[in-house]
Amino acid sequence: MTGRTDLPASPWPALWAMVVGFFMILVDSTIVSVATPAIQESLGAGVDAVVWVTSAYLLAYAVPLLITGRLGDRFGPGRVYLVGLTIFTLASLWCGLTHSIGGLVAARVVQGLGASLMTPQTMAVITRTFPAESRGRAMSLWGAVAGVATLVGPILGGVLVDGLGWEWIFFINVPVGVVAFVLAVRLVPALETHVHKFDLLGVALSAVGMFLLVFGIQEGQTYDWGTIAGPISVWSLIGAGVVVMGVFLWWQARNRGEPLVNLALFRDRNFSLANVAITTVGFAITAMAFPLMFYAQGVMGLSPTRSALLFVPMAVLSGGLAPWVGRITDTVHPRWIAGFGMLCFSAALFWIGAILRPGLAVWELLLPIALLGVANGFVWAPIATTATRNLPMSSAGSGAGIYNTTRQVGAVLGSAAIATLMASRIAANLPAGGAAGGGGADVATLPPFLHAGFASAMGQAMYLPAAVLLVGFVATAAFAVPRHLAARRATATAQPAPAAA
């Protein structure tokens, strides 16, 4: 173990510095969806090819997270964050300068690797610089950034594509990345590192298993859940991924040296339950956006930018509630805070699913979207804080890598599941002649006689993420009392009564 520099008087400047880069990579996860038609037209790419602009990024982002979290423990989260930020920024410049779809996909892979290096380090720095009893406020900022990024991405993408061209959704990352780098160098302290022996077999198994699983789930709908090439099918890839991940877990349990994933972390009840909960949140956040945006553009007739503006109440309420929720997260049992948020989240999605119809007034849709803002304000900080509150400092990066991996896998599952369900509901609710048009790229020009069936299909699809969130609610309801609260209560109980005069 190496020595470390003295921690600053306040850890907040370091967190704010890293949040800039974290916000940038989260925005980049959503901003490209708005620019996809423009990219397709500009580069003369087919639909199958342009889909990989997003798919390649998500694969490169999700697959290495277990490994990159561990790198932060070994080399210091600040150093690994700066390396990832540099890679991400240069790859963004590459994305904007490329003139072929193949070059853009390659650049997006490198960009995803940079994002994967950065993400676990933000949580690890929070865990290692904030004391357990005040970590909730820091995690509330982390969660608020994640929530606001889901709004800013589509809106910013629409503005940049309309005004300057699709290249600028990538060029804008360059000055932001430079500012984030300077802030991180000046404000993020050098934390102690822990000498780790890298489990090379574990690294290989986790990378292969995660790739097979994520690729199979993410691309299942593209290949109609059938054959990809020759004897290779979507389900054979998913099955192989499950087997390889099973071997990986067996090796982690048997490895007498230093495994890539310390399974002992899962002995902490709250860490295990928080990972279940954040998987359902990642699933719902990704899944809910597709039917809602399809409805807004296909039935309400809104442009992509105006559709994204529907999320303004969610972002405002989520960001406004975050500081207050962070304060009470440090003093109140997390099951009450996170459980309330999960129930609100599920109720809002059931509400949206029940009201989608032609002629719906915008204010009627904004009410459940506002409830989504309340839900997001109560969900992110308590779950993230509860996951990391009891972790040993030497495993902060590893724990953050696991947590972000489960969140990202939940998002991939949500994307695949909602695409399949939407196609099924469209086929069931629209006449045979209109089903193809309703499920493709012509949603914006959907004829009025199909609006009722299409709205019903999108509403029914919203019930899936709403139901999945109930699993997350059960997980949060089972949270144990965090150690810092248990210690505080024990101290209060042990205080002697005041002596009589």
Question: Your description of this structure?
Answer:
With 501 residues, the protein is mainly alpha-helical. The chain is globular. β1 (227-229) and β2 (232-233) form a beta hairpin. The chain has a two-stranded antiparallel sheet. 76% of the residues lie in helices and 1% in strands. The protein has helices at 12-43, 47-62, 65-75, 77-97, 101-129, 135-163, 168-171, 173-187, 200-219, 234-254, 269-298, 304-308, 312-329, 334-355, 362-388, 396-429, 432-439, 451-477, 483-494; strands spanning 227-229, 232-233. The longest helix has 34 residues, at 396-429.
Tags for this entry?
501 residues; mainly alpha; two-stranded antiparallel ribbon; 19 helices; 76% helix; globular; disordered N terminus
How are the SSEs ordered, and which strands pair?
Layout: H1 12-43, H2 47-62, H3 65-75, H4 77-97, H5 101-129, H6 135-163, H7 168-171, H8 173-187, H9 200-219, E1 227-229, E2 232-233, H10 234-254, H11 269-298, H12 304-308, H13 312-329, H14 334-355, H15 362-388, H16 396-429, H17 432-439, H18 451-477, H19 483-494
Antiparallel strand pairs: 1-2
Largest sheet: 2 strands, antiparallel
Give the uncertain stretches in residue-range form. Answer: 1-5, 435-441
Helical percent range? over 70%
Mean pLDDT: 81
| Widest sheet, order of strands | 1-2
Number of helices: 19
Ends distance: 54 Å
Structural class: mainly alpha
Number of DSSP-assigned strands: 2
What's the helix-strand series? HHHHHHHHHEEHHHHHHHHHH
Radius of gyration: 23 Å
How would you describe the shape?
Answer: globular
Q: Tell me what portion of residues adopts beta-strand conformation.
A: under 5%
